[in-house]
Specification:
heterodimer; A: about 250 residues; mainly alpha; B: about 300 residues; Alpha-Beta Plaits; 2 domains; 6-stranded mixed sheet; 4-stranded antiparallel sheet
Chain lengths: ~250, ~300
């Protein structure tokens, strides 16, 4: 337990010292917030953004974007790099358990997602005046499930991708595809044909719908939450199956 | 003394390559046991099997009475490991690493003291990536000791250290042993093995070809002593009459007398008796290197 907390604390410091992950997880969502907010504002435009204001739509979406950046870019590169360079081997020889190693990453994911979401909330409220969440309790539940989902997704990628380079390549492609098609980019209504199909198979789409419904006052999105839970379980099982210390 | 490490018929292959070929040995409590051999001899594979970092194909291993492959984590908590191939996160600071690794056990050592001992006190706040090779090496040794282990495995501990730092490291390893920790040391440095180890196993091509105290190995396998001096005198045939002398080699004024046992004293007495009192009389005693060459038929670097 002591190792888990010490390692989590060290990992948070390491996270902050790594500019690239800070850019992807914390800075990019805020940049998008300002770009999209500046372009679309928050006046509802029927037929787009689920018929709500663009900023009401994007606030929960950007929470999802932070989770997704952790699961595609930050975590896989971190874990694959640890394995490639012999850090995991070093940890294992000093009796660190897999639960300390992955548990600390889960804790860090939560902290980063919470910090990122607070930043998004502050800047959003200050500049674009979105409506506050209608069902905060459900939003918290969706937030927890979404974070766990993308953390497990990151564990899975980090377990199967053999090197830092491959993790960067695969992670960045997934990041941009999900960001643009998954619901944090253009309004979902403009995606047609193949784009719409791809959008619907990205985990981010389901996490965002799960987050948006309680925020916007729609009823809990059971199918999105079940799909998210399914992705979480499958990713976790695959990660456990393919995790290697070296 | 009780055995801390017991290995019976250990075998490990990588594809068609036999890395460790039916090795058996014991390490007693409180000794410094050295694995000496050329690169690729199977030393590292052997100690990594002992540390539960590799799974042997067959054989029986007990370290502190623990089977490494059923209770790896319990073992890791009680041993210290300095690994040949490992790293820390680039941006972790030296003190953070020590503090983190100390957290695995409640009876960890004071890492401030370790920093001081291993010459890293000034580097406490330096990041891992900014350390030199020698500093990293010393940090890894310090990390292997911070959990106050009962056995510590040091794999090529002094590689990358300058000569002064090597001697400091040797003194520190002796201090660790004197405190009661058993040390298993992998090295390809002859002088390190001879200087530091209570017992040495010479490993070659996956087998232990000889195992004893360094002096025991030398006495058994390379007892030849060489007495060297210079003289202008032509006839030295009386030297060959000494029974302990095997051969007298002349190279101009330089004379080498090869023999065994007390050949130095006998040769010196004979020289004085014949009126030769060389100022440069000296003796070359065999070293572990001579044993190594004899047992393996090649040098450590090969």
């Amino acid at each position: 337990m002591r190792t888990l907390f010490k390692l989590s604390w060290v990992e948070i410091k390491l996270f902050i010292r790594e500019p690239i992950t800070v850019v992807f997880t914390l800075a990019l969502p805020i940049i998008f917030l300002f770009v999209m907010g500046g372009v679309f504002g928050n006046t509802p435009n029927p037929g787009f953004y689920r018929d709500v204001g663009a900023m009401d739509y994007y606030m929960p979406s950007y929470y999802g974007l932070v989770m997704m950046a952790i699961g595609t870019v930050a975590l896989p590169v971190h874990l694959a790099g640890y394995r490639e360079r012999g850090v995991l081997r070093r940890f294992r020889a000093s009796s660190f358990s897999i639960w300390s190693v992955l548990g600390s990453q889960l804790l860090v994911s939560f902290i980063i997602t919470i910090v990122g979401s607070i930043l998004i909330t502050i800047f959003g409220l200050l500049f674009y005046h979105p409506h506050p969440p209608v069902y905060p309790g459900q939003l918290v539940a969706a937030f927890v499930l979404g974070t766990v989902c993308f953390t497990c997704f990151g564990f899975f990628l980090g377990a199967v991708l053999p090197s830092t380079r491959s993790a960067q390549g695969v992670g960045l492609i997934l990041f941009f595809v999900m960001m643009i098609l998954g619901g944090a980019g253009p309004p979902p209504e403009v995606l047609t044909g193949a784009m719409d199909v791809i959008a619907k198979i990205t985990p981010l789409r389901h996490v965002i719908w799960m987050l948006q419904n309680p925020w916007l006052g729609f009823s809990w999105n059971t199918s999105a939450s079940l799909i998210t839970a399914g992705i979480t379980v499958v990713a976790a099982l695959l990660a456990a199956r393919f995790f290697r210390w070296e | 003394m009780a055995s801390i490490i017991e290995v019976r018929n250990l075998r490990k292959t990588y594809g068609n390559t036999i890395a460790v070929d039916d090795i058996s040995f014991e390490v007693a409590e409180g000794e410094i046991f050295g694995f000496l051999g050329p690169n690729g001899a199977g030393k590292t594979t052997t100690v990594e099997c002992l540390q539960a970092l590799r799974k042997p194909d067959s054989g029986n291993i007990r370290v502190l009475g623990i089977d490494p492959h059923t209770q790896a984590q319990a073992l890791h908590r009680r041993i210290g490991s300095q690994l040949q191939e490992s790293a820390l996160p680039d941006r972790i600071k030296v003190w953070e690493a020590l503090d983190l690794f100390a957290s695995v056990t409640p009876n960890a050592l004071d890492w401030q003291v370790l920093l001081e001992q291993w010459g890293l006190a000034g580097k406490q706040k330096a990041s891992f990536s900014s350390l030199s090779g020698g500093q990293r090496q010393r940090l890894f040794v310090a990390l292997s000791l911070v959990n106050n282990p009962e056995v510590v495995f040091l794999d090529e501990m002094t590689t990358g250290l300058d000569p002064a730092a090597r001697h400091v490291a040797w003194d520190l390893i002796r201090a660790i042993r004197d405190r009661g920790t058993t040390v298993a040391l992998v090295t390809h440095f002859m002088d390190e093995a001879e200087e530091l180890c209570d017992r040495v196993a010479i490993v070659d091509r996956g087998k232990i070809v000889a195992s004893d105290t360094p002096q025991g190995l030398i006495d058994k396998h390379a007892s030849e002593v060489r007495v060297i001096f210079t003289t202008e005198q032509e006839d030295l045939s009386w030297l060959s009459d000494i029974p302990e002398v095997r051969e007298v080699i002349r190279k101009g004024p330089r004379v080498e007398v090869e023999g065994s046992g007390p050949v130095l004293a006998l040769a010196a007495a004979a020289l004085v008796e014949h009126g030769i009192i060389p100022a440069d009389l000296r003796v070359e005693k065999p070293a572990l290197e001579d044993v190594f060459l004899k047992m393996t038929g090649h040098g450590a670097g090969e």
